[in-house]
Structures are given as structure tokens and as C-alpha cells.
Amino acid sequence: MLSTSRTARILALAATGSLLFAGCASGSSTSGDSADGSTTVTWWHNSNNGEGKAYYEKVAKDFEAEHPGVDVEVQAMQHEDMLTKLDAAFQSGDAPDVYMERGGGELAAHVAAGLTKDLSDLASEEIGFLGDTAGGWQIDGKTYALPYSLGAAGFWYNKALFKKAGVEKAPETWQELLDASKKLKGAGITPLSVGAGDKWPAAHYWYYAAVRECSEQTMADSVANMDFSDQCFVKAGEDVDELIKAEPFNAGFLSTPAQSGPTSASGLLATGKVAMELAGHWEPGVMQGLTEDGKGLGADTGWFSFPAIEGGQGNPEAQLGGGDAWAVAQDAPDEAVEFAKYMLSEKVQRGFAELDMGLPTNPKATDAVADPALASMLEVRDKAPYFQLYFDTAFGASVGGAMNDEIALLFAGKSDAQKIVDASQDAADLEK
């Protein structure tokens, strides 16, 4: 469990982002009591393949067995599809009873529109053991979702390919990352995959570079005031442009998807086609679902934190990341709250950890993380001086969307460092 109040402060501050969906209808028209007296709880999640999908189906069945008369209707879908469908469901008033919330401006929008249930009293026990970890899903002292996984983004890499290219240790600085990429290319190995077709994987490079270039106070002020005037944000774009010009990425990266299929960015790493990918704590579980043996990279899986940038004002141990939480729609039946709480139980969280689906937040389950590389992230997570929430989540859809679009253009060679800042600030000004 995260123990620093500073971490909670940064994540909670992110939840003051722009407000969207105002005036949308709330409720779920497909759930609740049925004619035979049973109660249906609709649940949407994004573990859409492999053992993760099967596990969540089992979780639903186990809950049904413990709660006679309750039917959990599960929908598993690809991540980007889920986000789009969730937005549409909120607009139409047909939202699922239990769904994933990422915090930040997105959560603030849902709360402002009256779409999301206040769980402060209903889940007080769970909020108690979550401690500071719940901070990213709290607004004005109230908790609106229960985080079940929280971790940092970083570079996942293939140890065998590093060894083949003579890269003796994981890069600790930006220059060492550039040098490692050059060595890998010299050995005929593609250094990096990026799913720029989905935009956000490319955007993560700029987010993280900003965390390294900008001081903690600058980052906090930027989130609170939606202000990108500090020169550190331009420097972040210049850093990323330097990497792009070194041409380390997979062929066709501009149209490559993030996680769907063996030719996605995650699939290329999982199948040994590239040496590294910048991705979040979900990566081991995703890779397992993209290989025939269900093991992903297995023992060759390595992980290292985003490198320090020479001259940057950011703390090199600060982390960019985020998490996923279970939220309950405002008009969902009481059983939906019980189901959300059930998924934070030690039993469910241990199974989640054992399958490398993410980093559990229930402190009684953290020792169950099976993958050594994923387990190493726990120490990084818990010792981070502060966590910065992913920018597109922290700033909300309008600002985050404009930001991601311009970063994708940088990767395509059609933008520059200043234009990213200008596009982000323009979108932020419209939200103020």
C-alpha cells in the first residue's frame, strides 16, 4: 500500500481537472430487479483475453454463489473500445453498474454530472485499508471508486535481446537509453515498439519527460491551474524529438495499435520482435494473452524505470503512472456496491496478483505478485517521492485529447516541442 501522504496529494489534486458530461443522464437501464426476483449487476472490464478474462469470469461466478439471487452480467472488451462505449453509455443513460474509473479529470466529470455513487460510507472498511492509495479517487473528501491496481509506467524489456546486443545493464539516464538503442540497432534488433496508432502510448513519452524535466511544484501547479507556461514542458518535447530522430521504433509504428494482437506494440515485445516498450504495470498480463504458450516473455521479462534526464528539475525517482478502480453507477442496485467491495477482498486481489494482471492495492495481497519484474515495481511504487497521474487522465478528455493528438504529430514528424505546449494550453484555456 502506498504510504506517503505526498503521493495521495498529487493524485487527489489531479482529480480537480476539467468537468465534462455535465447534464448527462445517469443510471443503468439494463440492471436491477428482474421479474423472477433476481438482481442483475452489469460489469464492464478490459481483461479481454487469456487467463485474465477467465479469472474475472470466475470472480463473477464465485460472487453469484455467495449471493444467491444475484446475476453478474460480464462484458470484457478491448481497452480503447471500452472507453468509447463507456462515454456513449453515460450519454445515453445506460451505463454499467460497475465499471473502471481511472481518476483525475475523468472521475471529476462523472461526479459533477451525478453519474458515480459516493462510496465513502458504503465501503469504509475497504477505504480504510487502502489508505493513501484511495486519494486519487477522492473529491472534496469523498471516495467515489475503489482502486484495485496502481503502478508506474516504465520500460519493459527482453533480457535475452539486451544480452545479445551487449547491453550490460538497464539504462539509468536518457543518454544511456539512446546509447542502448544504438547498440541494439547495431545488432540488428529493433530497440522499441510504440503503439502510436492509439496515440496515448506515444504520449506517455512526453508525459514522463515532463515529469523528469519539471519540478514537483511545477507539475502540481500545472495540474491545479492547467498551466503549461514553464519552459520545462518545451524541453520535454525536445527530449522526445531527439529519441524519435534516432529512429528506434518498429516499422509502421504510427499505425501500430497498443495491445490488440501479436503485431501490436505489446505483441511485438511479447514475441521477441523488439527489445523494449514503454508501458504500464498491466504489461505482463497483456503479453501473456498475446503469446501461444500464454507466458509472454517469461523469465526474459525485465523492467526499468524511466531514465533520469540530465539537467532536469524533476526528481529521478518520481513516477508517472496511474491505476484502475471499481466505481458504481449512481442508480445501481446495492448488490453492485457489494460486488465492487468483493473485488477488493484479499481472495480476489491475490488471484489478480498471481496472474500478473497488475499490482494489487490490498496490502494483504501484494506478496502474491508472481512475476519478478512486476514485483520489483512494487518497491519503486511505494518508495516514489510522488506519483504523477497520466496527463490525459489528470487533465480530462478535452485537454488530454488535444495533447495526445499533437504528440502523435510529433512522432509523425509534423509537429514540434512548442506546438505541443501551445495545443495543450489552448485546450486548457477553453476549459477554464
TrEMBL record:
<protein>
    <submittedName>
        <fullName>Extracellular solute-binding protein</fullName>
    </submittedName>
</protein>
<feature type="signal peptide">
    <location>
        <begin position="1"/>
        <end position="27"/>
    </location>
</feature>
<dbReference type="InterPro" id="IPR050490">
    <property type="entry name" value="Bact_solute-bd_prot1"/>
</dbReference>
<dbReference type="Pfam" id="PF01547">
    <property type="entry name" value="SBP_bac_1"/>
</dbReference>
<dbReference type="InterPro" id="IPR006059">
    <property type="entry name" value="SBP"/>
</dbReference>
<keyword id="KW-0732">Signal</keyword>
